[in-house]
Amino acid sequence: PEYWSGLASACESAGDTTCANRAMQRTVSLAPMTPRYRWNAANDELARGRADEALGEFRQLLEMDPEYAPETFRLCLKYVGDPGKVFQTVLASRKNPELNFSYINYLVYHGQGADAYPVWQATFALNQTIPFSMARPYLEWLIRKGRDQEAVSAWHDLESRGIIRRPPSDSGGNLVFNSGFEE
Q1: What per-residue confidence (pLDDT) applies to 88?
Q2: CA of residue 124 relative to chain centroid, distance
Q3: Does residue 177 surpass a pLDDT of 80?
Q4: For residue 172, what are the CA distances in angstroms to 154, 155, 179?
Q5: Mean pLDDT throughout 137-164?
Q6: Per-residue CA distances from 160 to 8, 107, 153 (Å)
């Protein structure tokens, strides 16, 4: 696969897209579980303007190696521009709350936190427990931006999954968590 990958690069440099495409396909067929070849294939699809094919390659890449998530999100959002489409195509078909939260937090940190709520809802629909540390950046962003209703809803989602627990002495109507400092 290394030689075929080199050939794909050489063909690309020479402007022979047919040769480059065939060599990249051969590379991936010889090493389908090697993330860097999948990364190259996805980028090759983006370079050719085939965003849907690239998103499919990125989806497979993240199944193999979630370490590629930040760069994958960056490229997908740059070329596709629609956070919802990126989520639906690259992440929604899997049951991976960690990767979903990686996407939520990526959106928050890159000024697109408003697009994170549907991903949040889809993630909680998976009915899987996650650590509070994964949800915290999004929750803090909601509070900072004054999105009080979404913040309360997100907090209730966390309570309903047992990720956070209200001390028994707190009344249900009290919005101050742990108001008696029992915990």
Answers
A1: 93
A2: 15
A3: no
A4: 16, 13, 11
A5: 90
A6: 51, 24, 10
Q: Residue 181: which region, alpha, beta or left (left: phi > 0; alpha: psi -120 to 50)?
A: left
- Look-up: residue for tokens 């047992």? 162
Q: Give the closest residue to 80 by CA, choosing from 45, 108, 111, 106.
A: 45
> Would the pTM of this model clear 0.85, i.e. be above it?
no
Rg (CA), the chain: 21
Q: What percent of the chain has pLDDT over 70?
A: 90
